[in-house]
Amino acid sequence: MTKVITYGTYDLLHYGHIRLLERAKALGDYLIVGVTAEDFDKTRGKINVQQSLMERIEGVRATGLADEIIIEEYEGQKIDDIRRYHVDIFAIGSDWRGKFDYLNEYCKVVYLDRTEGVSSTKLRSEKHAIRLGLVGETSDLRKFRKESGYVNGAVISGVCGDEESEFQDLLEQSDAMYILSHPDVHARQIKAALEAGRHVLCESPIALSVQECEELFALAKEKKCVLMEAIKTAYSTAYYRLLLLAKSGRIGKVVSVDAACTRLEDEANVYPGQFNRSWGSLCDWGPTALLPVFQLLGTDYAEKQIITHYADEAKAYDAFSRVNFVYKDAMASIQVGKGIKSEGDLVVSGTEGYIYVPAPWWKTDYFEIRYENPANNKRYFYQLDGEGIRYEIVAFLKSIEDGRDNSYVDRHVSKAITGIMEDFYRKKDVREI
Ligand code: CTP
């Protein structure tokens, strides 16, 4: 019996897939189809796959061409599969020509001509092209614009600054807005966008008072629009996995979270003489640094203290801030700096060990779990593509498409972040130095 194996994502199954499977099957007597798991697809750069793994497997099964369906989960698995299933022929579309020649050592490799004119990418972009308007300084938006290019289903409809008329024009031409403007104007811009029925992805903090934050989420609900807070770190695979490991008790009970984010940057040069327009350390870095605190320990802290150091006499620009939290049975501390540098690492301490993420932890692909006995330490590596931004965009588009909340930042976390900003600006629990 001649066994043939082939692999693919098979998203939105189309004629090109069926033709490929038919020809692969005709090469032998038994066809195994490997369907790629979502995580694995992410690392290969296939973004915004529309169907879940189960739906894609169902699609392949419904063709009646596969004798066996397996899931492809890791790099190097093809060699394992070929050996395990005693495969004679590996078949794949001609778009991969040459890429799998290394498998010739294990079986025969056949490249089959790809069907012209059809692909999942094409179907995805035709089906769900969401027009995305970008709000903010062009230079700040560069990264987001680049990352959106990796995501199927979004087209940039335009860019505008804070100018009211420009903003209104862009709203007209867009289905959704990405807002990276000064935090002072976030709430106003979000409100205008939601009132016009546009979905919103806004950099954190989305508002500067808890009441405003609640009103915005209520308005989004009323208008049946998505409102998502953008904190890219929440979407980095390494960060997300460390949350899961900590929550599953790998370091025992979590008793402390310490996070630092700092950057050397002379803000006075960015906004000469306009400290009131500048964007200090707590408002800029705070949401990112607060994320692991609130996601691991919750938002129900008993007390907090904000200690802040201003760079200017008018006390409009905080260059360095620390926030200490006391919980019922845990504690946390964040340190943020803009213009003052420190070690930007993250430490999550537990009763059985601790998680250490070296600087810059907010865009890491690596962390360690450390124990009393170093021989038990474990290192974890994950691919980090686009600092998490492209997965954030995928989550936003998915929320728009399926009407469900796919955000990795819960509302109560958004509210708690806004609460810290509000207290800071109202000088509640603040010690100034
Ligand atoms: N395939 C094909 N002809 C097409 C599209 C795909 O022969 N028009 C083949 C691919 O070469 C591969 C298999 O079908 O062997 C599964 O492809 P997959 O990557 O899932 O589909 P694509 O449509 O190529 O997806 P994408 O656009 O996301 O790359």
Protein described:
The chain has 14 helices and 19 strands. It has helices spanning 15-26, 38-43, 53-62, 77-84, 120-127, 138-148, 164-172, 183-195, 210-222, 237-247, 267-270, 281-297, 389-402, 411-426; strands at residues 3-8, 30-36, 68-72, 89-93, 108-112, 130-136, 154-160, 176-180, 199-203, 227-230, 254-263, 303-310, 318-326, 331-338, 346-350, 354-357, 366-370, 378-381, 430-432. Strands 18-17-16-15-11-14-13-12-19 form a 9-stranded mixed β-sheet, covered by helices on one side. The protein has a 5-stranded parallel β-sheet with strand order 3-2-1-4-5, sandwiched between helices. Strand 1 (3-8), helix 1 and strand 2 form a beta-alpha-beta unit. Helix 8 (183-195) runs parallel beside helix 9 (210-222) and helix 12 (281-297) packs across helix 14. The longest helix has 17 residues, at 281-297. The protein is globular and about 80 Å long. Cytidine-5'-triphosphate binds next to helix 1, strand 4 and helix 5.
